[in-house]
Amino acid sequence: MTNGIRKVKTSDLELKDRLVSIQRVTKVTKGGRTFSFSAIVIVGDENGIVGHGLGKAKEVTTAIAKGVEDAKKNLVKIPVLHGTIPHEQIAKFGGANVFLKPASEGTGVKAGGAMRAVLESVGIKNVLAKSKGSSNPHNLVKATFAALLELRDAHTVAQHRGVSLDKVFNG
After folding, report:
1. Phi then psi dihedrals of residue 111, to 5 deg
2. What do you get for the CA distance between the two ends of the chain, in Å?
3. 3-state SS assignment for residue 119
4. What is the three-class DSSP state of 148?
5. Which H/E stretch holds residue 77?
6. What is the pTM assigned to this prediction?
7. Alpha carbon of 73 to those of 10, 44, 51, 67, 77: distances in Å?
């Protein structure tokens, strides 16, 4: 555990990848325009482990493959309790603000775009999420990760404080 980020080993994991965004990027040179692609990819085992990556290449498939490899290097463990998150969380990255709220069984993932891909890859089944500010997929993914990394379950809080689980709830 370094700087509050819970790193995960990649061996023995069944990771599924989701493409969040693909952009065609143009570079203007003396000889004309050069086109390339950048892809934002989320990988996760749908059981609390997730990572995000960015791949850039001259072809779409190569960009996606590079994004998947980058995402596998950035895997983190997120606490998931009964298919939802332990508590409300707000986070910001760049111009993107995200708000995550736990939801009861049967609610589903109420989130849009890039946030939905991240939350589904983590394995969260019921959550209410709101994106405020910028809808830039890069910043939205990073803000969602920032919110998820701030989440702590009761066992972690009890360990951190050095008290029993019962004392966490009863003060």
Report:
1. -150, 160
2. 27
3. helix
4. helix
5. strand 76-77
6. 0.86
7. 8, 12, 8, 10, 13
